[in-house]
Design goal:
The protein contains two helices and nine strands, in the order αββαβββββββ. By secondary structure, the protein is α+β, with helices and mostly antiparallel strands. The radius of gyration is 20 Å and the shape is globular.
Length: 164
Amino acid sequence: MKRFNTLKWLGLSALMITMTACNTQDNSVSVVKDGVVCSNNQAAGMHLVKEGVIKNVGGGVVMSDKSLKAGEEAKSEADDSWLVRVDMGQQPSGGYGLKLLSDKLAIEEQTATFALQWSKPEPGMAQVQMITYPCLYLKVAKGDYTRLAVVDEEGNQKHSLDLP
């Protein structure tokens, strides 16, 4: 009988832990797509983008700016995340790129922060001689924050964005 009570309490404890975990905020960020030429003449920065842009990045090249205009609602297929594009701006050759360093957001004082590696070609390495506009499309979990910031691998803030 004592063994049954112990098992019952262990089972209830496991259920409560599982239910509690399901109610915690998802602080994840993930890569949807990366690109070398995301748009023409796109300045370096971070932008919320429209839901339909995911379908347009399939070929790796997006020639039109799908950034949200002032006052426009940001929507994603699941209303629990933002679709964000981080641009490096114009680069003189191939070999430049962005890489997500962690799939977790750090949230502090209403600001959610994630880190990217800002890559550039090594001196003396062969690279494609063409102007590129590297970018990264990210799915960012919505949460209890009003600002989104991106930092480099050393923790220096590169861009920030006030959320609607």
